[in-house]
Amino acid sequence: MLRASLAKTSNPGLKRCMTSLASAKKEGDISDAFTSMSGAHRDPLPDRYRLLKLSLLKGREDKIVKSWNNLLRELKRENEIVAKKGPGVIPQIEFGELDRVGDRVREEVKKRGVVVVRGVIPEGEARAYKAEVEEYVARNPSTRAFPPHDPQVYELYWSPPQLKARSHPSFLQVQHNLMSLWHTSSPAEISLSQPFSYADRLRIRQPGDASFALGPHIDGGSVERWEREGYGAGGVYDPILQGNWEYDGLGACSMFRMWQGWMSMSSTKPGEGTLLVNPLVKLSMAYVLLRPFFKANARGDWELMSEREMDSELQGATPGTGQELNADLHPHLELEKTMVHVPSIRPGDFVAWHCDTIHSVDKVHAGTSDSSVLYIPICPITAQNAEYM
User: Fold this and answer.
1) 191 pairs with which residues across the strands?
2) In contact, 209 and 203? CB cutoff 8 Å
3) Which residues form the signal peptide (predicted)?
C-alpha cells in the first residue's frame, strides 16, 4: 500500500511501510473495510495505544504544540478558499495537453492531491464498458456485491471491460504522467515510468441509492499510521510527528499505490452519486496525525493532553479498517464545507486522488441516471510490489 506523498522515497532496504504482503483474506465486500458501513461496534483501543502516544510525544511537546497552532491557522485560511471555490478548486487537464502541463498546474495537483484528466478514453468506448459489465454480471449471477439485495458496488476484478480500461494505451500514458509527479532519492528500487496493473472493483450506482453512503475516509488502514511497526517502520510520517508538518511533502518509503482513481463510464454532475474530496492533502493528513494528542478545554481552546490525561483514542481509527473522519472528531477540518464534489464528469474521464486524500461519496444519488466507474489505482513497479505480485 502506498504510504507516501509527492516526495522522496527512502532506501527500501532500510525502511518498509508495507506491514504485510500477499496473505489470504476472507471474502467480503466493500462494507467490510469501514466500521460505519459494516455496522460493527467500535470498542475502545487497547492501552498500548496510550503508551504509544506518550512515547511519540516524549521530548517533543513544545515543537508539537507550536506545529499544531500553526496548522490550525493555515487550515482556517485554506478552508475558506476551498469552500469559496468548490469543485473549481480541483485541477482539470485535457488528455491531449497532458505532456504540456506547466509547473504551476503540477504544483496545484500536488497541493490539492486530486486531478481530473479529461477524455482519456473515447466517450463511446467508455460507455460500452458499462454495457459489457452489465452483460457479464447477468451471465454470472453469483457475483458478490454491496448491498446484496440491491447491488451498487460489484466485487469484480478481472472482467473484460476492466482489462480493456487498465491496458488502454491512453490510460497507460496517464499513469506514466501522474507517476512522474513523484521523485526518488538514490538508491531507490522503483520505476516511475512503468506501472503495474492493479485489480480493483467497480461501481454502477443507481439513481436514488442511499446504501453506498460512504462518509469521509482515508484508505490504506488507520491505526497503522501511528504504529512503529506500521507506517512508522518506513518513517512515512516522522516529520509530522516530530513537529514539522510544514516540510516539503510527507516523507516516503517503498510504495504500492501512488494514486487512487477511477475511470468514468457515465455522465455525472455534483450530487449525482459521485465523489467528494478534501483538496488539502498535506494539511488534512497532518491534522489527522496530530489530533489524538490534543483536547478542547473548558474555554473551547485546544491544548496538549498531559501525561495524566492521555488516552488511547486515535479518532476515527479502528484496527483492520480504513480511517474515518467526521465533524465531531475532526472539527478543524470543517468537513461540512471543505468536502467538495469533483466537477461534472463524462464517460472516459479519469479522476485520480492521492492515497492520503480524505474522500467520500454522495449520501444519496440525486441524479436520474447511473453513476458508474471502474476503480483503477496507479501503482509503480517496486521491488516490494514485484514481491507482492
Assistant:
1) 381
2) no
3) none
Place of cell 497503522: 224
Indicate the pLDDT class of residue 33, thresholds 50, 70 and 90.
low
The dihedrals phi and psi of 202, each to the nearest 5 degrees, come to -145, 165
CA distances from 233 to 258, 283, 343 (A): 19, 22, 37
Give the 3-state secondary structure of residue 359: strand
Dist. CA 64–CA 304, nearest whole Å: 9
Lowest-confidence range among 127-141, 233-247, 276-290?
A: 233-247
pLDDT of residue 23: 43
Burial class (CB in 10 A: 0-12, 13-18, 19+), 47: exposed
Structural domains in the chain, CATH included, are 32-388 (2.60.120.330)
Task: Give the pLDDT score at 197.
Answer: 82
- Strands 92-94 and 114-118, by their bridges, are parallel
257-266 confidence digits (pLDDT tens)? 689 999 999 9
pLDDT at residue 184, rounded to an integer: 63
Residue 11 has pLDDT above 90, yes or no: no
CA–CA gap between residue 90 and residue 344 (Å, rounded): 11
Predicted TM-score (pTM) of the model is 0.88
pLDDT of the residue at 198: 83
Cell 489470504 locates to 24
Which residues on adjacent β-strands are paired with residue 190? 382
Q: Are strands 217-218 and 323-324 parallel, antiparallel or unpaired?
A: antiparallel
Are 277 and 358 a contacting pair, CB within 8 Å? yes
Find the helix packing angle between 103-112 and 281-290, rounded to 10°. 30
Element at 68 (helix H, strand E): helix 61-85
Question: By CB neighbour count within 10 A (0-12 exposed, 13-18 middle, 19+ buried), where does 69 fall?
Answer: exposed
Q: Which of 220, 346, 352 is nearest to 279 (CA)?
A: 352
**Residue 205: strand pairing partners:** 371
Long-range contacts of 50-56 (CB under 8 A, 24+ apart): 50/310, 50/311, 50/312, 52/226, 52/227, 52/228, 53/226, 53/292, 53/293, 53/310, 53/312, 54/307, 54/310, 56/226, 56/241, 56/293
